[in-house]
Design a protein that fits this description.
single chain; 172 residues; mainly alpha; 6 helices; 67% helix; elongated
Length: 172
């Protein structure tokens, strides 16, 4: 029978597979909802006599169209990058204090270039999802992706900084 170390701090390691499934389900649901909404909007915009079904210029302007790289998005994307940088620093901080990572494996988190690449990929993924929402005309969702990402990154960082040091010591 395997004995557990009472000094090891590893909150809910058995949740890792189910957390990944939940995140995948949420992302899939958002994309399905966005695509079905766009299809409904296209059907309403299409004129009965038109062959192409392309929305007119006036209907695009009415949907709140704007350049993707406008001032608001630039500030939001900078916030996402700052949030991910803060997450990187807070994750490194708690690993140096001997606390185990529960979302990724400790070997991934202890590899600084790999963790930095994962954080950069998070920023790129946020940009990509925002761009998909922009292209499909979901401009509020486009901005909310970044707002939610900033909130999650800052919240996770605050949690990371609030963790108590492990009595087992720093990782090797």
């Amino acid at each position: 029978m395997e004995q557990k170390n009472p000094n090891a701090i590893s909150p809910l390691p058995s949740w890792r597979p189910s957390a990944q499934r939940i995140m995948l389900s949420v992302l899939l649901g958002v994309f399905l909802l966005a695509s079905s909404t766009e299809a409904q909007e296209d059907a309403q915009i299409a004129k009965p006599g038109s062959r192409t079904g392309q929305p007119s210029v006036s209907s695009q302007a009415g949907r709140g169209s704007h350049p993707f790289w406008d001032k608001d998005n630039i500030l939001l994307f900078a916030g996402v990058g700052a949030g991910r940088a803060l997450d990187y620093a807070s994750t490194r901080h708690f690993r140096e204090r001997g606390i185990n990572e529960w979302l990724l494996s400790n070997s991934i988190v202890d590899n600084k270039p790999l963790l930095a690449g994962i954080e950069a990929a998070g920023v790129a993924a946020s940009l990509g999802v925002s761009y998909l929402f922009h292209r499909t005309g979901h401009h509020k969702l486009e901005r909310w992706v970044s707002i939610a990402h900033i909130g999650v990154a800052v919240g996770a960082s605050a949690r990371n900084y609030s963790l108590k040091a492990s009595s087992a010591g720093a990782p090797q």
